[in-house]
Fold:
Amino acid sequence: MTKHYVKFFYPGIMVPETSYEAIESRDKTPKVLENAYAYQFFDREEIVSGGDLCCGKPKNESGMFYVGGRVKTFEEVEHEMPVSILSSNMRINKIEKVVMTRFRQAMQLNRGDVVL
Structure:
């Protein structure tokens, strides 16, 4: 049986912290906790076998939905922070846009991502 989930992203020390919860449908906007900066939908197959719940890998992942962020282009970052690590990383990795989250993190904006 296919189940739908929403995965929440929180600031972490080196990588984002995450949590997820089952949802009825992807059609409703989830209630985002105050300390989360983004969420993403995914599905997975689940079956009960011998009394144990067996879960497949996440699939059909949506783009990221950033809550309260601001898009910045490479040109804006280069102008505002010309000698920053962010500017260098964007130049070297040919990153066109980032999202500055409400927690002042810079995350690469990918196709399918939405800033709310």
About this structure: The helical segments are 74-80, 85-92. The CA atoms of residues 31 and 68 lie 14 Å apart. DSSP finds two helices and nine strands in the chain. The longest strand covers residues 38-49.
